[in-house]
Each structure stands twice: as structure tokens, then as C-alpha cells.
Amino acid sequence: TWLRQKVMATTEKIVDKIPGIAKSSMDDPDMPRWVSRGKDRAIDAAWPDVRSEILWEMAVLLDRHPNQDEPTEKGCDCFRAFFRYHMFPYDKS
Fold it and tell me: Taking Cα atoms as reference points, which of 66, 19, 79 lies closest to residue 44?
């Protein structure tokens, strides 16, 4: 539990730096000021949900037991079949 708390605390510190990095990486000197403010507001509006999802997934990853492996059987690959059918349709008749 001590290690889990340390990892979560470090993750929170790192995750809290991401909005500033995202804002500065998308900054453009030729961008109009109102567009820049809109970009920053959009990042600020979406960030609480993104942050909570990242921290939740990290907690789930840390709480997972080692014997809880992924299922070995592959399920139906419906997405790939759908896209292949629509990208490469053909009639065998």
C-alpha cells in the first residue's frame, strides 16, 4: 500500500503538469488572441474529466492482481470486419 500511495502521488504530480504542457505545445505566435483563449478554455474545461479518468485507470492498474490475466481467447473482431467490408467490398458471384 505504501508503494501504491507513492505511485499515485507521483502520478498526480505528473498529470497536473499536462494541461500547461498541452497549452504551450499548441501555442502559435500567429494565432489570434481570441483563438488562443478559446483553446485554453477548452483544455481547462475538459481537463477535470481527463484527469479523473487517468487517475482511475492508474488505480485500476495498480489494484489488479497478478493472477488476473487477460482472457486468452480472442473475441469477434467485428470492427476490423466492418472496415474491411466497407473499404474493400466485392461480390463473389
Answer: 19
State how far the Cα of 70 lies from the Cα of 81, in Å rounded to an integer: 23
For residue 78, the one-letter residue type is C
**Grid coordinates representing 40?**
485554453
Amino acid at 91: D
**45-90 confidence digits (pLDDT tens):** 999 999 999 999 999 888 877 666 666 666 667 877 787 778 777 7
**Rounded Cα–Cα distance for residues 77 and 14 (Å):** 35
The torsion defined by the Cα of 17, 19, 20 and 21, in degrees rounded to 10, comes to: 80
Q: Which of 43, 38, 53 is nearest to 18 (CA)?
A: 43
Residue type, 67: N
